Amino acid sequence: MMRVFKNPYFVLACLIFWVNQVLEKYFGIFIPWIHEYLDDLLAMPVVLGITLQIFRWIHPQKGKFRFSKIQVAVGWLYFSFLFEFLLPKWSKIYTSDIWDVLAYGIGSLAFFVLINVNSTSNNAPKL
Fold first, then answer.
1. Between the N and C ends of the chain, which has fewer C-beta atoms within 10 Å?
2. Residue 60's Cα: distance from chain center in Å?
3. 92's torsion region: left (phi>0), alpha (psi -120 to 50) or beta?
4. Cβ–Cβ contacts within 10 Å for residue 96, how many?
5. How do residues 57-79 score in pLDDT, each as one tens digit?
6. pLDDT over 70 (residue 7)
7. Cα–Cα distance, 44 to 100 (Å, whole number)
8. pLDDT for 64-118, tens place per residue?
9. How many CB atoms lie within 10 A of CB 15?
10. What is the DSSP code (8-state) at residue 127?
11. Using CA atoms, how far apart are residues 114 and 106, in angstroms rounded to an integer?
12. Residue 120: pLDDT over 80
């Protein structure tokens, strides 16, 4: 049974996110398009991946549990609403950007296709 935490696409998303954060926060390296959109692109695979693994630990279906298209879409809409509408109204450190919504959407699609797979089948994605 492949756990989410062993899925190569989940691991890759986490690794890229971590490297980007280290480059920005410790080395002050900011690459414009990457700085603006990479975290948003990786947010959904990372957050939904962690959430999926927790569900698989507690849900009766275990490794067969998958999020539905509707559940993934709700996650995408929730993140978009929170980070691109609500938080920019409450704090000046957040800015609203429609391209972030697109990045969350692409990340959600990548999660659904590459990470949200039945871990008990042999059709799990390979890098």
1. C
2. 24
3. alpha
4. 14
5. 999 999 999 999 999 999 999 99
6. yes
7. 11
8. 999 999 999 999 999 999 999 999 999 999 999 999 999 999 999 999 999 999 8
9. 11
10. -
11. 12
12. no
The number of beta carbons lying within 10 Å of the beta carbon of residue 127 is: 8
Distance CA 13, CA 17 (A): 6
Q: Which amino acid is at 56?
A: R
| Token pair in block for residue 119 | 């871990």
Q: Which two tokens stand for residue 9?
A: 């696409």
State the CB neighbour count (10 A cutoff) for residue 119.
Answer: 20
CA 115 to chain centre: 10
* Alpha carbons 127 and 11: distance in angstroms, whole number: 11
Q: Round to whole Å and give the CA distance between 108 and 65.
A: 17
Structure tokens belonging to residue 86: 């609500």
Structure tokens at 10: 């989940």
DSSP notation for 94-113 = ----HHHHHHHHHHHHHIII
Tokens at residue 126, please? 């390979």
What is the distance between the alpha carbons of residues 107 and 105, in angstroms, rounded to a whole number? Answer: 5
Q: Could you tell me the two tokens for 103?
A: 């990045």
